[in-house]
Amino acid sequence: xxxxxxxxxxxxxxxxxxxxxxxxxxxxxxxxxxxxxxxxxxxxxxxxxxxxxxxxxxxxxxxxxxxxxxxxxxxxxxxxxxxxxxxx
Length: 88
Fold this sequence. Notes:
This protein is of the alpha+beta class and 88 residues long. It has four helices and four strands. It has one domain (2-84). A four-stranded antiparallel sheet has the order 1-2-3-4, with no helix packed on it. Helix 3 packs across helix 4. This is DUF433 domain-containing protein. It comes from Nonomuraea rosea.
């Protein structure tokens, strides 16, 4: 439980404000109640994950997706791997 709580930043009112998602190995992805309607986004640069994933699923190569959102290829691939992982 302590490991999960370390990923949560609490606001002054005691409610969770920023949660760092743990599935990503390279990209730092957060959910912030004050930004992007609390949708997951890159901590650096602020691009929403859904936008990156949608562009890739529309057929754009990873290099173009990374360039469009000013990300490294490694971070883009990391997010796309997690998003397209097949449930077992």
